[in-house]
Amino acid sequence: MSATLHRLAGTSPSLDPMIDLVAEDMAAVNRVIVDRMRSEIPLIPELAGHLIAGGGKRLRPMLTLAGARLLGYGGTRHHLLAAAVEFIHTATLLHDDVVDGSDLRRGKRTANIIWGNPASVLVGDFLFSRSFELMVEGGSLRALEILSNASAVIAEGEVNQLTAVRRIDLGEERYLDIIGAKTAALFAAACRIAAVVADRGEAEELALDSYGRNLGIAFQLVDDAIDYTSDSGTMGKDAGDDFREGKMTLPVILAYARGGEDERAFWRDAVSGRRAGDEEFAQAVALVRQSRAVDDTFARARHYGQLAIDSLAAFPGSAAKDSMIEAVEFAVARAY
Amino acid sequence: MSATLHRLAGTSPSLDPMIDLVAEDMAAVNRVIVDRMRSEIPLIPELAGHLIAGGGKRLRPMLTLAGARLLGYGGTRHHLLAAAVEFIHTATLLHDDVVDGSDLRRGKRTANIIWGNPASVLVGDFLFSRSFELMVEGGSLRALEILSNASAVIAEGEVNQLTAVRRIDLGEERYLDIIGAKTAALFAAACRIAAVVADRGEAEELALDSYGRNLGIAFQLVDDAIDYTSDSGTMGKDAGDDFREGKMTLPVILAYARGGEDERAFWRDAVSGRRAGDEEFAQAVALVRQSRAVDDTFARARHYGQLAIDSLAAFPGSAAKDSMIEAVEFAVARAY
């Protein structure tokens, strides 16, 4: 089977093969997650559970589990690490929603709206600390190194994004730096630790890192494109959130770069927050379509998706490999 | 020399002996701190540096260094860990100021006032992640275990405190749980890791843990008492902050428990936030003095200080031991 995105045309790609592949491992990871969310302070499991039980795909820990399968690892050492990955992700989401002032995530009211910003900040800190306890228990200094480094890179990416808000002149390169850090670093680390757990060498570590990193970039590109498509039900967040927050994402960067004087003036006004209501959002959607900025954002996503798939080339064919390829196809096809 | 707090009467205790003892090590720790605060995102060193360079005593990393000296350890393995301890502490302060909406710390405007809450949350996350990178580099899974556990306990304590705000019926026991977690856990861990670095056994670990924990409780009790004394210049934060935020600390808990009907009504109103202006704060100060609640908070601090000193009993006399005893005396004498 030639592994390319052209398979897309024939089938409707899905995460189901990966979900089935790791179902047993994921049940064990879920037990760890539920167990380690516990605390004598009732607010902690209540708030954390709202998000953790709230319909997330658990894509990141699933990647750790699938990666281990790809390498033929059949043990359980990675269960604690996969739970740690999900805790890092959840802590990040809690803090993100505070930073962005979001009120909706995965179709539900955000924790900061229900319990307030202070509780979201502190429970995020708790989950983050717990994730490190889990990693320590996992017992691998190498995995700890990879995940603690990813955590620092994520935080750096978030600060970078914060300082990039309302910067109309951001440019694609810095945008890619930001999403590479805030999103792709954890995807990469989640995959890479599978090679550590399976006691493989640097080549396998790098291949899995590259798979995760490129998948993460593709994933974020599609998320950012969907924010400018009319039907945003797939995201479970408010369409136009990025627009209203003045967040510079690739659709805007491309539309601004390609626009004439009038269009550039519109984007400057909108991104600055001076004119960013519903009417302007409708106009923004029209402009990103007209300039093919959304189509090309999806095209970029397919490019990175292909890089992710190519990273797996050296691994022999297996159900695990097929599921990882299809996960990429699913990620880039979410828009259609 | 009999090590008791009665030495207080004769001398004016100071941190200087400890500062002198570890000066060379602390210079190395400071180099690590400055080096690891760096980032390509300029906001990170700018914001972190505001707090880290901002006149803190670096008491917690100093305790790691002094503890190592107490055990005769002359290496450098603890420098990275001591820097990690300071990063955890700084991250906590950044998030605390967001949670409390504070505007003054160590006599300076807080980072959240200057750069906003989002930046403080994210740079706190960055420092927290960096602290784990430093610990991993330190290479000791046992030290990682102690510090990651302390981090989770701190976050739990902060959430516990948040849910205790404006709870007039809090009680001394739960208050002690809160400060034991949010403050004393990091003091305990900072001291305990010295025994790990010096390759000592459980007895030394526990003795140093107990020293740090009791010192931390004493330290927080004095901080909480000072908030109800008229001259709060020593704290560098606004006197009456705890009062205005409805934070239940021991002076209030004792004054409420000892008060008659009228006084209890006053405290209920004040803690609920209905009447908590300058006039009420003046009345609160009068009431905590009248009921000896502040005096007895200081007395509790001396009790825990004595426990800290007694934890060192088994260690032979040395300049390190003397400096650690005097640090306790300094902590409990700050009010006088």
Automatic annotation (TrEMBL), chains A, B:
Pfam families the UniProt entry points to: polyprenyl_synt
CDD domains, A to Z: Trans_IPPS_HT
Cofactors demanded by this protein: Mg(2+)
InterPro entries recorded: Isoprenoid_synthase_dom_sf, Polyprenyl_synt, Polyprenyl_synt_CS
Sorted UniProt keywords: Magnesium, Metal-binding, Transferase
Record flagged with keyword Nuclease: no
Gene3D superfamilies (UniProt xref): Farnesyl Diphosphate Synthase
Family per similarity comment: Belongs to the FPP/GGPP synthase family.
Record-given protein name: Polyprenyl synthetase family protein
Organism name: Sphingomonas citri
Highest classification ranks of the organism: Bacteria, Pseudomonadati, Pseudomonadota, Alphaproteobacteria, Sphingomonadales
